[in-house]
């Protein structure tokens, strides 16, 4: 039945009621029953009461609606002549539905805090059906006067009132205000459909810059980690257990589990996706019907009236259709456009929520897995790779969920288009499709190639991030890795360009082939097909509709493949080996006689006994990878003119011998056990075995009671001092104060600007080694555990602090005297006071017993004591008595001078925040800077300059050329139809030839423009930006790293660089396509129907206003999203570095909760940003629908003046231009948001760097400078950052060539600062470079401050700095080092640092990072460093892989590798900064001998806590509070009992007591 055709009223009534009333009511009743069961079975009451002001009226109106339906049923039954069964069925169905509405509406407020979506949906649908039915009844002359009609009209009124009440916002109700639910969870159905719940964010963002707090609480509750993680992780664990139980089954599949677990959500997404696909073809059909309506008003002469009957020139009377039909069709177009918009928006919103839910769950799973990784698995997964699993791989799901359902919907859309095309051009369409089928193998090949290159790209990115994470020793290495990544990106660009051409031109190729067949043999009996405007242009429009799904295939395949690759990587990580909980048997503490720690027949190793089982596929992939790596090494050696390296042994063939053998140990309750031995013998490994960090191959380990652990390298988190110590426990002031005192931290806290609320930097970067160690001890003590495992905690502190800690904390009379303690130590002077001594050698316990027993045994232990203890048994009573009184005075200096004010910001003013309890919190690490306002045009200039202006111009030109070719194809087809209509000579070959040529030119232009954007310009830009970022970060002053968390820097190198590599080229391409397309469309419309141009200005103004209103919030939300990610990365990095401590102390739960909190904050920011796009889409496309309505109504009202072709052209292009402008606005917003990454990179690039790497003086310096090694400090002063106190004050002394100088002083006296000054890590106070490298508030200012104010403050900041001295200078061989380039200076000085740093790579690469030396030189250096035997025993020798941070070497061994590295550098000056603090006294003695022998012609500065280390120096420099106190030969100083050096030596036990 045609709409608007005359039909009997009775027929209308019969048709309307069952369809419009009964069906919705039946479906609603089923839905209500399901919802009632769901609430009663699984609902959770919120106990917040009801909003009676809404609930009461809603129920009363619903009850009134039921009453009116009862009245209508009665009226129908009493009707004269009987009642219609259909009418009665509809009325009763609705009565049941509305009665159930009362039930559901009664239950919902108990369990939810918003209007029921079921009730709201049915109320809206019921109102629409009732309105149509009322109109139908009104049109019937008899029904409108009957009582049943009046009853139904009353029902319509009740229905309308009910909908208004249900739609009324409930934000101000008491229930919602008391609820902690998110704003999304509080939003009703209509708010969610229109995304009005986001309105307050957009409005706020228009008025002022948005902050993270503005988006807090917006995300749906089910996306949060507490819900999403167990939802996926539980099923995954069950799946893995099931698959592993069946060994022959295929391996576990994370992809499959994600599909299964979220099957319900995927189902709803598919419904929306297919609904959207189907609705898109409604508008063209309505448009065709509207053209028929206009045609009906035309003059009698018609070509083909109605698209069908009648011959050409045949006279027919016009049969105009009712005006009402035209209006209905116009509104039909409007409703169809709105329906497409709302369904599309809900589809994208649903996939967004699903993607973020999956991402949140995966991040939580990766984080928890990283806490459970076994030692072997940890060596395979570096911090960079784990960060990538979170920042890139999990993120892929958030991006790909919107594309995945289109794998189903695209074939559906294509099928509809083909069916409609078949109706137009018959079987010719299948020939066209056949041409595409033939190319499918090529498509498959390209997809496979794309996947392989994508995997290689992510692997290259992993390698780069790993190196960034390790803060590389040289740019050279990282640049090479980045080069490999760019090479992969280039290949990716090639493939992407080809795929883009294939998918973009596919519809044109189908059209070409189809028209070729149709024009030649497509007619009846294989005659020529008739070329008419209707056939050509209707087919062309359908080919246009076909182009959307076909052109999206490229993007869909890209996203699906990327998600598959990412999921495989995460799956591999999740299946990695975990630490076994059964390694250590934990029991409750028992009686006094039961040992607290018991190890029987223990054999422990750092790797598993057998390599992991691998499939043939995995084996082949590994062998291929190893062969490729060796091939690259051979090429590099050949290029360098060296011998090709031997093929390294496979990881599968590595040495798997155990580290600890035959371990038997019993530790009594409350005892103090010391573990001693030489470097690399297994002391730390023994503690690792006890806490379960090693593989247990045989034997048993039992621990009774709670364990706490203080690692050899103190682990400090980026938090306040108090939070580092309390570590998540409840704060107990009395206990806390006691622990602060016994750890010697009281004076340090007193000197800090905000006391213990002072924030200490990431990794404790602004604390001295001794302070970090004592904070770590304080944390352990505060845990109040039963067992304390202390790994060499006294190595980094001075003798007086050592004694204080021993007497007050660790020793027999210390705070922990009743606790069980295992102390790894090199301090032999404490051994006589311990209960048990365990001597480790070659991984075995060689001696075990009390001090006296071991001395009597006269074994290796006795020999050690006799050789290295000056006063093995001297009376320490006097020292003990004085230690407590002197500890407070001496510890006053136990802070890095200058760092007592380290909380001062760069402008010299103390930046203090006040907490709720009134305590000041001093922030060292400031909140991350967030720009406000629009992305400056300068940022675009930066990117375009990086891409090159020439490439940019070529890109614009080629886009215009490609669009011109596309428009030309339509113009040529129009010309062809005109020629055919005129009856002129029609040669299909000529027309098809030109058409094919235009398509070929379009294909070439498309490939070229994609290639330029994605490969040439895009690659050049991302390469330049990465190089600038890397160069800037590598040359920033140390003060930047003191105040910037590592996660924040890694975020620039991961997410922001990834955006430059991937998102920005695509964003530029999208906006260019839209701009060129809109321009071309407007030109075509202007030429065809100039009258339509009247709609363009208001359309443009409206769109611009919406864009201006939206874009401010959109930019801020993108920035908030970027900034919210940094804490997640930082927390990951922090956790990975302290995972052993976290596990040993059982703090996994708290860290997991912190990770969830930070991930949820990041997800909320991301959710808000993506949902704001939907807010924009609804409003822009709704405006577009209004424009279509106006154009359609204009056509209907002017139906007698306009021709159908003009109406069709105007309306079809109005639809096109609306879509294009909408996409253009969104593309512009996306581009601005992506450009935030360039802005953030440029923020670091423009920071003030340290002094230049090279200066003009470098060229005039002798090649061998420094040739003597003479060092002179002339009135030298320095500070760590501008505005802080001086850390070295007026230092003047001279070191002669080849002189050995020992530098000593209390912790924090300025010893390490002196070495920093020598390497110009810090500059002389108030010097030119100290000011020039200052990154103060001018670089990280509050955007709200005016620029003038910033400049004034900057000047004032520098004026505040004390200028009573110029900072002096340092001279080496008569040259002021401040005039020498940093690269030249640092390359000719060598240092063995306090914290030995190794990088992931081979031993060879660590010793010789620039590949300048032969292996023989490396072995010689290792021999001198007393490490040759150990390295030779490792698999591969120099090719042995060092794990990240050197974790597979002991701290002492790392120090020896650093020594070997220093030996290889032929420098005249060597600095040893606590280089031997982590080695035993015997190895220390050997190293000192090596240094004396190998460096006899070099100047050596040795900083040491261990006084014995510097006793044979030529001179001793004693520092006190940053000043020179003494500088003489040690013999001279030891003859003066009043000297500071004498006191230090005496406290260290290096002077025999004269009273003895």
TrEMBL record:
A Gene Ontology cellular-component term: fungal-type vacuole membrane
Transmembrane segments: 15-34, 54-74, 86-107, 119-137, 149-168, 266-283, 323-343, 400-421, 427-447, 492-519, 531-547, 953-973, 993-1019, 1063-1085, 1091-1111, 1180-1197
Major location (coarse): membrane
Pfam families assigned: ABC_membrane (PF00664), ABC_tran (PF00005)
Keywords in alphabetical order: ATP-binding, Membrane, Nucleotide-binding, Repeat, Transmembrane, Transmembrane helix, Transport
Composition skew (Low complexity), residue ranges: 638-647, 882-893
Ranges where the ABC transporter domain occurs: 638-867, 1271-1546
Domain ABC transmembrane type-1: 268-562, 953-1233
Biased composition (Basic and acidic residues): 614-637, 648-657, 907-918
GO molecular function: ABC-type transporter activity; ATP binding; ATP hydrolysis activity
Subcellular location: Vacuole membrane
Name of the molecule in the record: Uncharacterized protein
